[in-house]
Here is the input.
Amino acid sequence: MSISFESFGLHPALLKALQNKAYAQPTPIQQSAIPPALLGRDVLGSAQTGSGKTAAYALPALQHLATQTLLSPRRTLVLVLVPTRELAMQVGEVFKQLGHHLPQAVQITTLFGGVSINPQMMRLRGGADIVVATPGRLLDLVDRNALSLAHVEALILDEADRLLDMGFAAEIERILSLLPAKRQNLFFSATFPSAVQQLANTLLAEPVRINVQPEVENAADITQRAILVDSPNRTQLLRHLIEQNKWSRVLVFVATKHAAEMIAVKLRKARINAEPFHGEQSQGKRVQVLADFKAARLTVVVATDVAARGLDIAQLPVVVNFDLPRSAVDYTHRIGRTGRAGEQGLAVSFVSTDTQAHWRLIQKRQDANAQHVAPHVALDVVAGFEPQEAPLEISFSNGGIKGKRPSKKDKLRAQAVSNAE
Ligand code: AMP
Here is the structure.
């Protein structure tokens, strides 16, 4: 028999919110994490976005608040640390939706940098029961005495690997020093390199370990395709694919914010509705781009890896790796933006002569990392975009297209075009 949310003994107000969100059944991570978290145990979850991990920690946290009288001004009892402002907003929203019907109104505040601190200070005046924050801004606010962490009963680290990747180790250490020693810790990370493992070891006391890798399972729903194309022709190829396949919503990943801007401009010139999305845009702009993308007012979002994690955009049928990601893990995250919740997805990667070795490495690592992937993704070529730069050792699966080794002149020409891009 399948496990139900009711069987966890959740507050009726939380069950009602789950009903409103049409969550019929707990996801695997929710099934494994909610019962021990409700008992106050520490949890170490290996899980990615898409697994339902937010509700896996939000429900026990809200239940914890529902079972006590909240004092005024509100003391921060639950602290959620997240790496990015987008994730902060997304997580804050989930808390608000799930906590909406609780008889005592729960104060949930979302704090992140890149926006003026004053409104956040104002909002904190009456206190906050639950704070969802990025580490830097949280410490700024603590330093200004806008909030105290002295009463935190549950600490949640979401995307711990990303938190460390983004250089928040020192901030996290300081935050930990401000928390009461006796507290519950819920720790979620998609990957466990040694720094993450170390942090988990220092933080957690006899944690319940949970390992759920949904995107890996989902990989079956994602068709992966790699196209060999000369770098200077990638924008044209992208445009061709969008038009020919009538793609209505495409997330395109690039390596730099400059590339994100340039490619969006070029697509717009070709009358394709595109916007860049990267870390140096104003918060307002990023919110707007996401909202437009979600509401199907935008066809293409050209993003740096800022968007690769933590964003939940339902029904994203196509992801394009215009630039290849740095690592196999990033590749999994990027392609995990599509094919979510049982939908079919397509992940297309552009590979050039220069990046072919890197592509092979990504594939090798993926194979090594898990059972999941996918048979080797063959390199395709698209008619009209046959690479001129292909080295001789490449043989094409569709037979017959032979590359030639680029001459010095070819290379200079390609370089000039790519610099001009
Ligand atoms: P998360 O991994 O927390 O970002 O959640 C991924 C997506 O799954 C979000 O769109 C959630 O709204 C959705 N979700 C979470 N839990 C459930 C559930 N039990 N049933 C259906 N959808 C869910």
User: Anything to note?
Assistant: The chain has two domains: 5-211, 216-420. Residues 23, 25-27, 30, 49-55, 312 surround adenosine monophosphate (CB under 6 Å). Residues 5-211 form a domain with the Rossmann fold fold (CATH 3.40.50.300).
